[in-house]
Every structure is written in structure tokens, then in C-alpha cells.
């Protein structure tokens, strides 16, 4: 019980939903300038930065800014069919039998864009980052269920 309380407090400290009036003016101004067509805007605090979740042209998007309004990254949901062929080929080669359940692209001010995919097969789920040329940049196990968990 103490552990569960600790985890809850820790997660709350890292991500916290905010009312617009609680967001620093430089963050709101930078966001409005970069994404003037944004709809359904919500704000969260992630550690020392701010995440703005919104829809742009009907597409789920999030952008991160520092406290001074400096843009850090933008992540946009994309259709699997919009992935570059090199990424699709890399998935087929390196993750045989896995299906893509979610896809997004992340753009940074000073780095190459990346594609982030959630790949599932049976009870195994990975979150994998790819370069536009299909190179695997990072792989993280999201879910791995044992046979015992499967029966429960």
C-alpha cells in the first residue's frame, strides 16, 4: 500500500494537468504563435516543462515547451500508411509478425525527426523509435505478459 502511494505521488509530480491560467505567459504565447489553428487545447506540466495537447486539422498532436516558451518538440499521430517505406521495411525485417498499433512522428528544433511506433505481437508490446531511413534508434518493452497473467 505504501509502495502504491509512492508511485502515485511520483507520477503526479512528473505529469500534472493545468488550467490555462496556471501556464506561464511565454509558453502560451509561443504555442499560439507556432500552432495558430490548434483546437481542444489542454496543458500539462511534465517535470520542469509544459506539454500542450491539441488537435490540428483533426489530428492529435502534442508540443513541449520550456518555462520560457522555448519549443522542445512536437509529436503528431500519423497513419501507418503515412510511414516512410524504409521504416515499414525495417519493421517487417526486425519485428516479424508484429503489428503497428500506434504511430507518430516527433519533430525537434535541433535533431532529425523520428518515428515512434507501438508494435504488438501476442502479449508482447514494444515502443520503438526509427529514423526516417529505417534505423532503429531505441527499443523499449512496454508490456510483457506471462502465461500466468494471461489466465487471470
Low-confidence segments, ≥5 residues, pLDDT <50?
1-13, 146-152
Q: List the total number of helices.
A: 4
Distance between the termini: 21 Å
CATH class of the largest domain: Alpha Beta
Percent of residues in beta strands: 35-45%
Order of helices and strands: HEHEEEEHEEEEH
CATH-scheme architecture of the largest domain:
Roll
Shape field? elongated
Summarize the structure.
The chain is of the alpha+beta class and 152 residues long. It is 25% helix and 44% strand.
Structure description:
The chain is an alpha+beta fold. The chain has two domains: 1-75, Roll (Nuclear Transport Factor 2, Chain: A), CATH 3.10.450.360; 78-146, Nuclear Transport Factor 2, Chain: A (Roll), CATH 3.10.450. 25% of the residues lie in helices and 44% in strands. It is built from four helices and nine strands. The protein has helices at residues 2-14, 25-34, 85-94, 147-151, and strands at residues 15-18, 39-46, 49-56, 59-65, 71-77, 99-107, 114-121, 124-130, 136-144. It has a nine-stranded antiparallel beta sheet with strand order 1-2-3-4-5-6-7-8-9. A hairpin with a 2-residue loop joins strand 3 and strand 4 (59-65). The longest helix has 13 residues, at 2-14.
Topology:
Elements (H helix, E strand, L loop, with lengths): L1 H13 E4 L6 H10 L4 E8 L2 E8 L2 E7 L5 E7 L7 H10 L4 E9 L6 E8 L2 E7 L5 E9 L2 H5 L1
Antiparallel strand pairs: 1-2, 2-3, 3-4, 4-5, 5-6, 6-7, 7-8, 8-9
Amino acid at each position: 500500500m505504501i509502495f502504491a502511494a509512492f508511485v502515485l505521488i511520483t507520477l503526479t509530480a512528473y505529469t500534472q494537468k493545468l488550467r490555462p491560467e496556471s501556464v506561464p505567459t511565454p509558453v502560451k504565447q509561443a504555442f499560439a504563435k507556432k500552432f495558430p489553428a490548434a483546437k481542444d487545447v489542454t496543458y500539462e506540466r511534465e517535470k520542469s516543462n509544459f506539454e500542450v495537447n491539441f488537435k490540428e486539422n483533426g489530428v492529435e498532436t502534442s508540443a513541449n515547451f520550456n518555462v520560457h516558451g522555448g519549443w522542445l518538440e512536437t509529436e503528431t499521430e500519423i497513419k501507418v500508411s503515412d510511414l516512410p517505406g524504409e521504416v515499414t521495411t525495417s519493421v517487417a525485417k526486425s519485428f516479424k509478425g508484429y503489428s503497428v498499433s500506434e504511430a507518430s512522428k516527433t519533430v525537434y528544433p535541433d535533431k532529425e525527426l523520428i518515428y515512434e511506433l507501438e508494435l504488438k505481437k501476442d502479449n508482447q508490446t514494444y515502443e520503438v523509435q526509427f529514423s526516417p531511413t529505417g534505423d532503429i534508434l531505441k527499443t523499449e518493452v512496454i508490456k510483457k505478459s506471462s502465461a500466468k497473467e494471461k489466465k487471470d
